Amino acid sequence: METSSRNSQVIHAGIYYPAGSLKAILCVEGRDRLYAFCRSHDVPHDRIGKLITASEPTELRALDAVEKTARENGVPLERLSAEQACRLEPHVRSAGGLFSPESGIVDAHALMDRLLAQALDAGAVFVPRVAVVDVERASDGYRVAVEDAAGTETIAAERVVNAAGLEADTIAALAGIDVDAAGYRLHWCKGSYFSAAPRCARLVSRLVYPIPGKDSLGVHAVVDLGGRLRFGPDVEYLPERRPDYRVDPARLAAFGAAARRILPDVRDEDLEPDISGIRPKLQSPGGPFRDFVVADESARGLPGFYDLVGIESPGLTAALAIAERIARMIRG
Fold this sequence. Notes:
This protein is 28% helix and 27% strand. The protein has helices spanning 22-40, 60-72, 82-88, 108-121, 168-174, 179-182, 252-262, 315-331; strands spanning 10-11, 45-46, 50-53, 78-81, 96-100, 104-106, 131-138, 141-148, 151-157, 160-162, 187-196, 207-209, 220-223, 229-232, 236-237, 271-281, 293-296, 305-309. It is globular, with a radius of gyration of 21 Å. It is of the alpha+beta class.
């Protein structure tokens, strides 16, 4: 009900992330794993492709940098002239672009349902709606205290995988890690979406992204599996770390302007507030790139404790590759 369900539901190709970073490596590996999983387990998805568009000629140089990074990551891209981009997406404003054939969309809820069913079939016990209040090192592993309205219960575990999303730094701190010294302190970053009127759905047939910004990939046009068009997400850091998922109608004018940079035919009156999500970012506002943390914490005196911190985009795409990496760590 958190970051896994409140996102663009995009399968990323691995275009944007610095070569050699975990985000780049795990996105590319995870993308291929995810497409294969969706095919073999009947999870709705579509490899519809993505157009990254330079809305102005002054942005063409930025496309060069995106293309260079993608090629370093082994991601296929096709460079498009303004005329070629117009033939691909006639309604999109473009001075030139890049086409990514490996980008797609997925039903994230169906994916989670399938993964949960597999976990349960394998003997997992699912305990939702509890708060972890303590993680204590024991001679045979860990004691994890969880709390709900009925009280507190302790779970014995040989190993602990901390994949707690927005609270991954909180769980790491409960285990005894100094999150500031480790660089694990998370910054909550809200992203809102506005949905477009049905008439706008005909304007695009694939994902359309602008030139990426410093803190995000920019407000982009997302077509879902039902044909609905949404724009988002924007960037709003939440220094108080309060989970506020309301979408402020006052953001309409900014979303209208951002949408028209991609699709000039979209009017403000075509848009209405939709969903929002909150990213668990390690990157501070305006700060430098921060990679995923996928760590075996044995060196910190916590053998059998594994941290997944800062799993924002492309975390959905990379999920199966992240899981395999943790599994390899556990196998030794």
